[in-house]
Fold these 4 entries.
Entry 1:
Amino acid sequence: MKNIQKNTIPKHRKLHLIFRFLQGSKLYFAAAVAASLVSTILNALTPQIFRFSIDEVLSGSSGTMGSSGTMGSSGTSGSYLSSHLWVLALMIVAVAIASGIFTYISRTNTARAGENFAKNLRDTLFIHVQKLPMRWHDRNQTGDIIQRCTSDVEVIRGFVVTQLLEVFRTAFLVLTSFVMMFSMNVKLSCIVLLFVPVVVVYSTVFYRLIAKRFTTADEAEGELSTVVQENATGVRVVRAFGREQFEMERFDKKNNAFAKLWIRLGTLSGLYWGIGDLITGLQVIAVIIFGVVEAVNGSISVGEFVAFAAYNSTLVWPIRGLGRILSDMSKAGVSFERVDYIIRSQEEAYGKTDEKGGKEREHSGGKYDISFRHVSFGYEEGKDVLRDISFTVPEGSTFGILGGTGSGKSTVIQLLSRLYELEENRGSICIGGRAVKDIHIEELRRNIGMVLQEPFLYSRTIRENIAASVPGASLEEIRYAAQIACIDDAIMSFPDGYDTLVGERGVTLSGGQKQRIAIARMLLRKAPIMVFDDSLSAVDSQTDYRIRCALKEHMREATVILISHRVTSLMGADEILVLNQGKIEERGTHGELIRRNGIYRRIYEIQMSRDDRDMMGQDEKDKKNKKDKMSKEDKKKEDKMDGGIINGSI
C-alpha cells in the first residue's frame, strides 16, 4: 500500500474551503470578530486614561519636563485630584468590565463557530470517504486516512477559529496603536515602525522553513498511526507468532523518526523566539532612550511618554505572536492540503444519467440473470487477474466458481457489485440484459447480497450485527435468518443471547460463528442475487452441508453464486466454473466435470480422500484410508453416494 500522494493547493482554494465549511457558523464567526475588535478598542483607551491622569490631574499643567527635570504643580491640581480620583478609577474599571464582556462574547462565539466548522468538515470527509472507489482505498493507508479525518481537522479548526481571529485582532490592534502613537509623537512612531518590516521579514523566512518540516512531520505521524492501527487490529496474529518484539522495534523506529522531526521543529522555533527577543529588546530600548530625550526637550509630555510606552508594549507581543500565527498557519496549510486531497478525490461512478439529463437510472427489478462477456481486468496496469472470461448465470439458478488462490474468483464478484469498475473496451457485465455500469450503484448493491471471505462484524451486539443489513428488523425476522444460517442455537446458548456483545471485529466469536452471522445478515436482506465468497471456509463439512440444504429450501427463487475452494460446497450447483490463473479451464455440472477427468476431478479426488468424507456419511476410520486401499464394496458405496449428490440430493 502506498502513502497518500502530496497535493499542493492555491491560497484561494484554502479560503474557499474555509467559507464552505463555515456554513451555518458565519454569524458566530462575525460576532466573534466584532466583539474582539470592540474589546481591542476598549483596551486602547486605558493608556489614554493614564495620560489624562498624569498630565491633567497629577501635573496640573501640560506635564512637560523642564530643564530641571521637575513637573509643574499647583494647589488646584491637588484639590482636583482628591476630588475626582474616584472618577478616573471608575473609568478604568468600567473599561475593564466592558472589555471582559466583549471578550467573553468573542470566546463563546468562537467556540460555537469552531465546533460547527469542525463538525461540517468531519461530516464531509466521512461521507466522501464512503463514496471513494476501492482502488483509492487500496492505494492509501488506513492510519493516515484516520489522521487526516481527525488530527488534521483539529489543526484546521484551531487555526480558523483561533489564529484567523487573532489575525483580525492583531491587525486592528496594530492599526489602532499606531494611530494613537502617531497622534502623540511622529518621530517615536517612525522609530517603532522601522522594526516592523524586520519582524515581518524574519517571520516570513521562518514560515517558509517550518512549512516543509511540518509536511514531513505530518507524514511521519500518519505512518506512526498506521503502525499503531495495524498492531491493534492484528494483536492476536502478533501474539500467536510471537512478533511482539518485532512490532515494538517497528514502532520504536517510526516513533524515533517522528520525535526527531519535532525536536528539529522545536529547535527552529526556539531560534525564532530567540531572535524575536533580541529585536523586541532593541525596540523597547530605542523607545525609552528617544522617548526620554523627547520628554526632556519638551516635545512630549510625561503622560504622553507613559501612554506611548504602554502602546509600544502592547505592540510587542502581537508582532512577536506573528511567528506563532505563521507557524500555526504553516501547519494548517499542510493539513489543508492533506484534507483537500480526500475532498478532491473522485467518487465512484453511481450510474449514468438518461438521455434527457434526468436523474440516474435505477434497475427496473425485472430479471436477474447475470452475464459476463469477454471480461478482462487487472488491479495493476499490465497485470490482468481475469483474462477474457465469459459465462451466464440464469435467474434462479445456483452457480459455482472453483479456483485456487489468485485465480480471480473473488474478482468476479467485486466487478459484479462494482466494488471495482470495469474499464472501457475490457468486456461487459450485465444483469437482466442491462450493463451494471448503467444501473444506479445503490440499487445494484441493494439487489446483491454478499458474504465476503473475511466477515466483518461491528463492535456491537449480535442482534445489531445481523440487523445492519435491514435496520429496524424484528427479532423474529433476525432469528429466522439465523436459523437458516445454522447459528440460532449457538446464539441462544450464550447468556445474553442476541444481545451478546461480540467485541471488536467479533473477537469473542469463532471464525465459523462469525461467518454464519455474516450469512444471516445477508439472508435478512432477501436480495434476489446472493453471493457467497468462500464464506463457509471456517465451518466444518457437516455444517457446510446443513447450511446449503437450508439455503436450497428457503431461497429457491434467488440467483445464487457460490465461490469456494472446497468441491463439496459446489456439487449441488446447476453449473460450476473452474478458474485457473484468470482463465476458464472447465465448466459444467458436477457429474460432467467428474467424467472429464480434468482439474476439477483431481481436486475432487484429493479433497474427498482427505477430509470431506464425513459429510458423505463415512466414519472417521474410512475417512483416513486412501482410495487405493479401499475394498470394492466400499468403493461401490462411495460411487453410489456420489451419484446421489450428482443427481441433486442437495
Note: The radius of gyration is 38 Å.
Entry 2:
Amino acid sequence: MVIKAFSTPNNKKMNPPEKLLTADNPALHQRAKAMRQEMSEAEAKLWQHLRAGRLNGYKFRRQQPMGNYIVDFMCVTPKLIVEADGGQHTEQAAYDHVRTAYLNSLGFTVLRFWNHEILQQTNDVLAEILRVLQELEKQPAR
C-alpha cells in the first residue's frame, strides 16, 4: 500500500480556536451537509469503519468545515485529518498543497489515501490510520 501523502505540522502551534474548527460560513455548512449525503463509495466505506468510535474508540467527524475548507474525516484528539482522493489534475494537486499547509498550520496531521486503496486495501488503510493516531498520542500536545 502506498500512502498518497502524509504531512505533519513542522512546527508547534497553539490549539486553534473552536471557531476555526466549525467555520462561520453558512454556505460552507450547507455544502458539508450535502456532501455527507453524497459521499463517494470510498468515503462511505471508510466512514463505516471510523464512525461511532469503531476504530479503537477514536471519534471522527465527516465532511467537517475548517476555515474555508471541508475535510473528509477529522479526529480532533489527536489532531488527524484523513482525506480520500480520486483522480487528480495538476491544479487540484496545487490546491491540495495550499489546503494541507493551512491544516498543518492549525496543528493537524493530514493523511491522504487514493480511493482505490480504501476500496481494495481497507484493512491496510485502517491499520495506517490507527498507527498514526497512536503515534500522535505519544507526542506532546501542540
Note: The longest strand covers residues 60-66.
Entry 3:
Amino acid sequence: MKKILSAALLALLCGSGNAFAAGNTEAPNVEKFSLGYEGILAGNVVQGLSSRYWFTNNVGGEVNLSYGRLGVNIDNASIDDSHASLLMGSAKVMYAPVVKEHSRFYVGLEGGIGNVGIEVNDEDALPNTDVNVYVVSPLIGSEFYFAELPELGLNWEVGYRFQTVNIDDDAAEVDLKLDGTFVTVGAHYYF
C-alpha cells in the first residue's frame, strides 16, 4: 500500500512540473459556494448531494452526503421485505496545479465515514451489530466551466479507494477491505 501511494505521489509531482511554470490564470468561481451532484460510476449505490468551494485559485474543498438503498425480494413466507441502506459523508481537499480560464486540473485526498443498516420485515436484522464504512481516496480530477455559463462546473475524478467495512457485534469484530480504482462525475452550480 505504501509503494502504491508513493508511486502515485511521485507520478503526480513529476507530471505537474510543467504546470507550475504555466501562467497563473484566474479560473471562475473562486470564493463562491456551490451545490450539486457527485456520484461514483458504479450503479446507483453511492450518489449524493455535494458542495464545493475554491478558497483560492488553487486550493479547494468539497463535502458530500450520499444515501443508497438496496432492496431484496426473497420468495420465502417468513421474509416479506428486506433491504440494506448506506448513509455516508465525506470531505475532500483539492489542489489545482493547472488552472486555465475555463478549467482546473487538480489532485486531492478524500476521507469519509458511513453506516450500513440492514432490515428484514421492517425490523433491524442486526440489532446488536454496528456496520461502519471508512474510506480514504487519493485522486486526480478536472473541473470544466462553459464560457457562456461559468457558474456551472462539470467535473470528473479518477482515484484509488481504500475502503474498510467494520462489522462489530457481541460475538466478534470483522474488518472487510474493499480497495480499488474508481471514477466519479459531478456537476455543481456556483452561487
Note: Residues 85 and 117 are 5 Å apart (CA to CA).
Entry 4:
Amino acid sequence: MAIDIEPMLASPSSIPIYLINGVGTVWDAQVAATLHCVHGISGLRVGTLPGVSSQNGFLGLPITLMQEETAYLVRQGIAHLVPVNPNPTHSLPTSAEVQKYSAERVRRLRELEASMRDLEVENARKAKAKFTQAGEAAAAKREARARIRAEKAAKGGVELFEPEEPAPTSKPIAKTSLEPLRGTHFHDIAPHPHFPALAHLPSITSLPHPLFPFPSSARDRALLATFTRLLSLDLRVGLGPRFGGEFLVYPGDYLRYHAHYTSQVVVGEEAIRPAEIVAWGRLGTGTKKAGLICCWEEEEGGEEDGVEFYSLEWANFG
C-alpha cells in the first residue's frame, strides 16, 4: 500500500496528539478529559509521581494511546499528529518559552481568583442590600399597622380582638443570571504545540505515514476496522494482551464497568484451529469474560462494514 506523505493543514478544532518515537501521547488534562468523555478514548496513563509510594494507583499524565486509538482519531478528523523532535537538545523548550508559558498560566489563575473574589463581594453586597431593604419594608408595614390601630382607638371604634390585616405578599424576586467568569481553568485547545520548538515536521492529518505506518498491512486494517466498529456500537475498547486477547470490550466507561468480552481478531480466510476455539472459550471463562471472535473481510464499502462478531463461552462436558 502506498503511503501518502502529502502535508495537509489541521482543522482549527483538531486536537493535537504528540507523536514520540511512533507512540501517540496526550499531555494536557483537558484534552484527556475530552477524549475520554466525548470520544470514548481513554488511553493508558503512564505518568508517575516520585513522592507517592503506590505508583499503580496514582498514575497520571502523559497518556499513551494504542495505535488503533491514534489512527481512529486521525481518520475521523478529531485529532492530528504532531511529530516531536527526538533530539533532546532541540526538544526541550528554552528558558524564555518556559517562563512565558508559566507566566500565562499564573495570569489565568490570578484572573480566576480575582473574578471569584469580585463575584463573592458582589453577591455579599446584593444579599446585604436585599436584607436591609426587606427589614426596612417590614418596619414600615409594622409602623403603618400601628398607626392605623392608634387612629381607630382614638376614634373609639376599635374592637378588643380585631384581627390584624394580612401582610401583603411580597413580589417574586426576579432570577438573575450570573455573568460567566472571565478566567477559567479550561482553555481552548490549540491545534499547535505549546512549544513550537518541539515540533520539527508538519502535522500529520492522513495515515499511514512514514512516522506512523499504521495501518499498513491487512491485519492492521482488520484491527482498526474492529476498533472502529466496536466504538460505533457505543462500546469502550481497551488493551487486552494481559487477558490473552487483542482488546478488552466494555459496555460503557471502564471506570464504571468491568470488561464483558476479550476479543480475538481473525483476518479474511485465516484458518482457526479447534484447539484455538477451545483455548479462547476457556480463557474467557477463566477471566470471567466471554470470548469475542471478530472476523474481518476487506470490502470496498468501508473497512468497518466487513466485521462480524461471534461470542464464545466455554461449557462443561456431561
Note: The helical segments are 29-37, 67-75, 88-91, 95-155, 218-232, 274-286.
